[in-house]
Amino acid sequence: MYDAKCEAMGREDLAQLQIERLQLTLNRVYRNVAFYRHTFDAAGVAFEKIRAIEDFKDIPFTTREDLARSYPYDMFAVPLKDVVRIHSARGASRRMLVVGYTKNDLRHWTDCAARVLTAAGVSDQDVVQIAFHYDLFSGGFGFHQGAERLGASVIPASGAMSLEKQVTIMRDYKTTVLVGTPSLAYNLG
């Protein structure tokens, strides 16, 4: 296990942690993001009534269109100076969907990826080839950071490389773990 306290938590403790974090998140975005303040007020969301995960059904969905209308930074719940990394993905319209990460966000993201990799059997003995794209799309970065956190050797072999080059790297660098899309793995085999 990567984090036994977190991963072996009992169901009741997990449910309590989830509701506490949900309440913190809802209150934070209500205070700091005009879109959520207006949306929650219009829907009559009463945060004090959210006491269980089942109550989450009362929270309105955020759509890709909502995110596109908030381009580029209107959904950020922190000042831009606190954002240390910006990624984006194609949106519902021609606008990109922008995601900003704080140092704390990146720490959590790294821990989540390290947990996933640990569950898959990755350790500090591995050579991990990351075959996701390294660009505005954030795909490869989390696994890269997670593998480094575990002490593994990381090869940032962007998904933009040819299959032939990916195979050459695997063979020459003695890759023990490949992280990429299912279609990449299928095409390699």
Question: What does this entry show, briefly?
Answer:
The chain has helices at 4-7, 11-32, 34-43, 64-69, 103-119, 139-150, 163-173, 182-188, and strands at residues 85-90, 96-101, 127-130, 153-156, 177-179. With 189 residues, it is of the alpha/beta class. The chain is globular and about 60 Å long.
Helix content estimate: 40-55%
By CATH, the topology of the largest domain is Rossmann fold
Strand order of the largest sheet: 4-3-5
State the distance separating the first and last CA atoms. Answer: 30 Å
Report the principal-axis shape: globular
How would you describe this structure to a colleague?
The protein has 189 residues and is an alpha/beta fold. The protein folds into three domains: 1-61, no CATH class; 63-100, no CATH class; 105-188, Rossmann fold, CATH 3.40.50. The protein is 47% helix and 12% strand. The protein contains eight helices and five strands. The chain has a three-stranded parallel beta sheet, with helices on both faces. Strands 1-2 form a two-stranded antiparallel sheet. The longest helix is centred in the N-terminal third of the chain and has 22 residues, at 11-32. The radius of gyration is 20 Å and the shape is globular.
